[in-house]
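Reviewers asked in the last cycle whether our approach scales beyond single polypeptides. To address this, we selected a multi-component target totalling 468 residues and predicted its structure end to end. The input consisted of the following lines:
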Amino acid sequence: MADEATEAIRRLKYAYFRLLDTKHFAELGELFVEDGTTAYEGGVHRQHGREAIVEFLTTSLGDPAIVHLHNGHHPEIEIHGDGTATGTWYLEDKVLIPAYDLVIQGTALYDDTYVLVNGEWKIKHTGYQRIFEERRKFTTGELISFTSRFQPEKAG
Amino acid sequence: MADEATEAIRRLKYAYFRLLDTKHFAELGELFVEDGTTAYEGGVHRQHGREAIVEFLTTSLGDPAIVHLHNGHHPEIEIHGDGTATGTWYLEDKVLIPAYDLVIQGTALYDDTYVLVNGEWKIKHTGYQRIFEERRKFTTGELISFTSRFQPEKAG
Amino acid sequence: MADEATEAIRRLKYAYFRLLDTKHFAELGELFVEDGTTAYEGGVHRQHGREAIVEFLTTSLGDPAIVHLHNGHHPEIEIHGDGTATGTWYLEDKVLIPAYDLVIQGTALYDDTYVLVNGEWKIKHTGYQRIFEERRKFTTGELISFTSRFQPEKAG
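The resulting structure, written as structure tokens, was:
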């Protein structure tokens, strides 16, 4: 049972990343419970409710000229007896914004919670804390700024 | 049973990537059924039959001066009752071609089909559609061209 | 049973990478058996015993100004009947050393052995062989050197 739930939650998150990077934000919203919440970028970007999440993603990433990679690695899923679960994931992401000659790339650790609704696992909360983030010029690769959780001050 | 098949298919694909990036193309061919097919790069590169697949890979990537990374993430595997299965994967790839001062890197979504032959899962078809592709100078990192599924025209 | 062991070993390795990149080296040491061994970089860096492993990692990566990504993909785990297991993984890594204007990045294949101790899987041995390694300037992305298992001589 635990194995089946673990695989279902992995699949949920894989669908999330696939729908995110192909910009199917409304379908992505369906992976959350109605009152799902997010805390992206260590809580800098917080949304409450499916509608707000979809709107935030559409506003941030809806432009077809912005192209992105979000890969979730190393799933550590804990199934609780009461139809809830928690999960840690290792994110690698890269957002290409040619119009601003900008690439934002880095890594983060997700802390998610999931809930079983009518036999289907849904995202209750997703959020991550960065390990590091680089900003580089898209055309040349030159460093613009660098931050990490170990030394948050900017450099470059 | 479904779980066992899912894990077997994940292992099949992991072996594929390991054999690809270590240039063991003949062994990689054994992961396909005899009449397996490919449609790499959204169908630009199509091969029919194990022999043609191995020959294509040997010609494209056999040169030891060409070095490559192909990582498959986010397996979404569907096992069908009739000894067939389908799978979606999120590819991140990077091909380094120092002789041409070129790096080709990007992401894609795989659509594969698998078939159970004498108790062993084999690849029946593999193909992918790019999300984006960057070409950069290997020595400097400078952008040469950029395409995405959202805006296919070249830039840079 | 095999499935449960496979998942436990995946989790062990995922914890390893999480603790490595968040610099929790003492906790990481607990994932090894007391007499665990390593052979990083094809055996260039060998440690024997948990204490030596933790000391090596602390010395190499303890500086908070050094920031790193280690992602393990494509787990191919073999469970043996006698409480031991072996595993192959595909590593992608990136080490950012701003003080030396240096990024070291590349890929490798892990060959690990695991052992079951009081119902818990532990790392007995971990080691990897590089596929390729690039060294680039952190600030500009310019290539400094490049090596691969196919052509070990340096270039650039």
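Helices of chain C lie at 2-21, 25-29, 50-61. We regard this as preliminary and will revisit it once experimental data from Aim 1 are available.
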